[in-house]
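Same chain as my last thread, 371 residues:
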Amino acid sequence: MSNIKDIRSIMEANDEMLTYFNALYSEHLSELQSSKSRLFEINVKLDELVKTKSIYSLNSDYRKNLFSPINVEANENEKETEIRREIKTLTDERNALEDKIDQENQNIKAIETRLSKLSKAKQSIGSIRGYLGLSEIDIIPDSTEPEEQITKESIPDSRKKHGKNILMMSTFDKTYTSTVLDKRIRAELSSNNHKLEVVREIIRTDPNRAKVTVDEVIINSKNMMLIIDDCLKKNNYYFDDKKNIKSVIEDFLIDIGDKHPEVVIDYDFVDLTIQPPYVRTLSVYRIFDIVFDNIFKHSKASHVQVRVAEVNGKLDIMIKDNGIGIPDNYDNKSSWYSGIKRIRELVYLLDGQVMLTKDNGTTVKITMDIS
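reply #2:
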């Protein structure tokens, strides 16, 4: 009994330290990312300010007394002085941020070392527990009945693997969207603001340059609209949850066929009359989107056959293309967030099955519950 209490105390202390340092690691990592984002903004702004300052410096070259044989020294106008002052302020902030980023990297490295040691300690505790013949459930406090307790050992390896993959993909998607918003939207908006400030100052003295700058702002704005539209689509903003599943699939195939007229798409629906819950219909839409994205990007197919049927309360999907076929070593060489692996996790969450075969192209077969 003493062994159990001692190991329990060690485990609790070790887990608390792991929790603490994991939280600390996340805080420093968040601070690092925030500092890097701010540094990026400052560098963009400094670049624009230097260009703007050059314009004012160029304009001030004409400040001479035309009626005197001696040139009068060009005086710095108020706007140029203001820009010079702002450049100095931002430069000082940039230097401070660079020092802070270096310090955060050191902090993160130190925390990673501690986390590594604590993780090894946890493994060692597990080894000692095994040596003493104690299972993990033996040393968990009796806060619940044994049948309600869920231990790490009670979770099948397959579920652990799927759960890890799903969490990783979710994190990847959120990071991707955040990066797009930061680098492709916010940075461009900041750049456009600076360009408009330049236009405001030079619109009378240099209208041609002002026009060119405004045209650049318009082009950037249009590009940002396309990026925002893509983000909205990835987050299912345009998905119509009032359509039945047959209409969702058919509309998708018609739309994708119009965008890729070089590929012939034939489709057939068999007894497809039911309306699954919103989440399942959306998941089926996502599956079709991923499969056809792969077909257009990688298969070099000219013909795709689609068959969707309702069989014994289940949804059977078959998508076959006549392309080059999926590589034999796909699972080993493809990235963990690839399209096919995303489909597998989606189908797993829907308690279904997916099968890929290579035969004069690639055939994807999926069976899942639709209730």
